TrEMBL record, chains A, B, C, D:
Taxonomy, superkingdom: Bacteria
UniProt keyword annotation of Repressor present: no
Alphabetical list of CDD domains matching this protein: DHDPS-like (cd00408)
PANTHER family documented for this protein: N-ACETYLNEURAMINATE LYASE (PTHR42849)
Name this polypeptide is given: Dihydrodipicolinate synthase family protein
Family indicated by similarity: Belongs to the DapA family.
Entry keywords, A to Z: Lyase
């Protein structure tokens, strides 16, 4: 039976050495650190992992090393965002071969795709592997926007698609997806500032890069929701929100790598054309991280 | 001291007689019915009240009759959405004279306004009355989008502005407003499908036309949030959501008047060019209302 | 037979006296000045005329006075942008009674209208008068966007609608409208910076407030197009473009009234919340107007 | 001295054999056919050439073969749209080495780029080659929108950037770019339905895939503009417009390859997830191509 994805799904960055190559040792260390902090699953090669900027060889190295580093302690879902169907199938098979528990598939558009083309893309990938697929909707990076109606149809027509990650930041889509699938398809939130609302709305998990810099608060938020405690969840979310706002505004690889360096961890710089944080932004981030240290205070009243 | 606005703030429609005139008796009856159902405040002459479609005389009739009908049982906030500053001042003074507890002010744009023009508009209205102002942001109907930064500035520079109604449906603006005002300015949700998320995020109230057709579920949602019970709140919200989706999609006056007729209450039709529901849409609404009758079931698990 | 609208259709501002009342003498003078400058038609009570900000009485005064001032020297089209169908009919009849040659009808939305509602709105107005209707599409101010397909359908179903003014600034809509109507419906450009392209594409005229400040260049542009001279048209357009960019950016009533004042004509200020130009913007406008004085130079080459 | 790009710049598709490999012989034939038809320049590896869907090896094969096929008969500009700066530099050098006269550079975003990052990207590429760069703005496919102000700044700071291709379809940007650069930087239109307006506005050329299916009309349009004949240009444009509308709506590789097959040229199918035209769409295209055969009729009047 396949492993269950629930809770805080953490996205490691892909660390580079000074010569530009992937730093496999550091990648292993980053994943250990995330698992030690208590996150519920690991998702290598997501947007945070700069997967779009890697060569084929690098991608395979990162996928293999990440699954090996996780070593079955928590479930692993490997991100696949390829322009061509054949390219996606090749990576899907590779991910399965090296032991991923699931793949997260983002259809990428250069040319706009019809609904039939999107469905066929998922079906072809589903036919090529036996591990489950998390459908990933993120039009801001992929250029393809799948409405809840289309997503529900894909879930019905492609049996391997058993999970949905929504990153539009539009809460109504989650409600709509739940209505359309009668609650049978777990959905995951990929929009950091929407985490509190999405978990309230019943999201099975939160896909996030934040645990690279602070895992305690995302985990506390998830626990508060599971304990049915709005007040604690709100207070926790408001405490972590400045960090979420910052990493979304600046971009995940850039901000997370800068934050790791502030914490003494050398994960290198993002790939050009992405550039390191400016000194002013670095100071902002430093202040935000320092503010996370205190205890979240509980709101006294709701309204 | 001014009355406090908290909870479910209900927006009555403006009923018309066959000859097109306002049906004051029915307006009184509708308001009685809302208050009897337990709503916490009444907001005549909002979007739902077709205020934009009324002549000056009709507007004054509706304002005077509504405040009289409420008769102090709950707080009353009268909606003002005028293109000119002088027109808005005239209505603001009228609302105060007939006994409104507050006014809700939406700046309307034909020509785009600068920030300085918007601030001056609020300041001039604030100077003309002594009752508090609820700033209302609803770019979809007004053509003016006030970002949280501008709203926070208006709250600071115009002391009469002590409440904010946000209707963009963008939850992040509520979080941002709370950050910018250190939580000192109560905010209200005006986007029906966002009600659950907004109340979770700390909204002081929910401005809604839904209670015209069903007050029990909105009140139950608000109570569940006050009881700190996510599961009950979510189940209640999911139950009422199809009604909210319908009235937002079709338009509030059109759908609420049709729903009232289904419930045996003759509030007339909306003004042309708005037209009554088609028979097919009426049947949909009838089914949605019938489904609201059962008891909200509690979700068994959160994620 | 109805008069033909072709060429430069000029939009006068509505001048106000210090006490806020319409300055009928100045309105007459402004219209005389426009006609003397050679424009081909006059369009009172457009957006430029602040018609949205006028009371019913003021609107009737402006309509009656404008048509009287034109006195048949050129065709007159009176703008009507009313929220309710009955209100639009009332104004349409008034415009016909005082002698307008045509009316320009912009459907205004507070609540979004269905296609059936928009068509019925035009049909009801068409039934109430015998003068032709120029359909006006300007979603930025009206909140209603009529696609070419809908416009073509209205032209077919409502015989009074014999002209179309397009103000979206989307040139493709003009091509599409021409395709859909087989070139039988003349279209007019209402987006100032698109004037050159629209006339090239075959627009019957250009609806513009620019002649209040400079009629010579718009007329020269139109003449160059009629002479089939791209080079002269382009050079003329590039000369007047900074003025068009300025008045669109700042807003027509505000910028035109400021420009008139610079030219020694006291048309008053726009109505609050609109405010006069800042000194810096006034200086920009002054520079732009000064630059229009020289002769347009002809581009030496096309590419 | 570098070759001048002016007029109709044609974009060949990249033909594939049944086994998926690039069909180099057919690519050569397609380029011969385009040059024989009279186009003024060839642009391999643009969007039409499915460059985003090619492996590194395939891209190099297509670049080398295309430049060889052109054999200096007309100028060649090779398209480069790479996510990483290092990848773009590698391809730029390759293009120069195999004899391209210029490169067309589209910055691609997965993560949003700051202005500083975009400028540095162009500067690094400019430093790596000695042939001129055509900056390419196409936010719909690249996810990065460069405003005219930024483009003008890049032209100033990066001397190799001597041409600009604008594909937003926003005519005002071309006027603005001309204003900002005092007409010193030639601009090219990349939005097919805007071709007539852009050439009127002074575009140095039109970058288009249409000549794969019909070169006569685009060339006739360009000639009419050069002859300063609006009427002939308009009539020609209106004749070819249905083809332009179709290929833009359906997508360039898909529609052009289908059209070539209708003309008896086997260029294969686009790469999955792109799929061949449906039979209904193919019939539409067939009708459109048949209609292009007659002589463009001249409009009798302008308005």
């Amino acid at each position: 039976m396949s492993k269950k994805f629930e809770g805080i799904i953490a996205y490691p960055v892909t660390p580079f050495m000074a010569n530009g190559a992937i730093d496999v040792d550091m990648l292993t260390e980053l994943i250990d650190r995330l698992i030690d902090s208590g996150v519920h699953a690991i998702a290598p090669l997501g947007s945070t992992g700069e997967s779009a900027y890697l060569s084929d060889d690098e991608w395979e190295t990162a996928a293999r090393s990440s699954v090996a580093a996780v070593a079955g302690r928590v479930p692993t879902v490997v991100g696949i965002s390829e322009l061509t169907t054949l390219g996606a199938i090749k990576r899907a098979r590779f991910a399965q071969r090296v032991g991923a528990d699931a793949i997260m598939v983002l259809p990428i558009s250069y040319w706009k795709l019809t609904e039939a083309e999107i469905i066929a893309h998922y079906a072809a990938i589903g036919d090529s592997v036996s591990i489950p697929i998390m459908l990933y909707n993120n039009p801001a990076t992929s250029g393809i926007d799948m409405q809840p109606e289309l997503i529900a149809r894909i879930c019905k027509e492609v049996p391997s698609v058993t999970m949905v990650k929504e990153s539009t930041g539009d809460l109504q889509r989650m409600h709509r997806l739940k209505q359309l699938t009668n609650g049978t398809i777990p959905f995951y939130n990929g929009s950091n500032p929407l985490a509190f609302a999405a978990l309230n709305a019943g999201a099975a998990g939160w896909c996030t890069a934040a645990p690279n810099l602070n895992a305690e608060l995302p985990l506390a938020l998830y626990d508060a929701i599971k304990r049915n405690d709005i007040l604690a969840a709100r207070a926790t979310f408001e405490k972590v929100l400045p960090l979420l706002q910052f990493i979304v505004k600046v971009g995940l690889p850039t901000s997370v790598k800068a934050g790791l360096a502030l914490q003494g961890i050398e994960a290198g710089e993002p790939r050009l054309p992405l550039r390191p944080l400016t000194p002013a932004a670095l100071e902002d981030l430093s202040g935000i991280l320092a503010n996370l240290e205190g205890t979240p205070k509980t709101s006294a009243s709701i309204a």
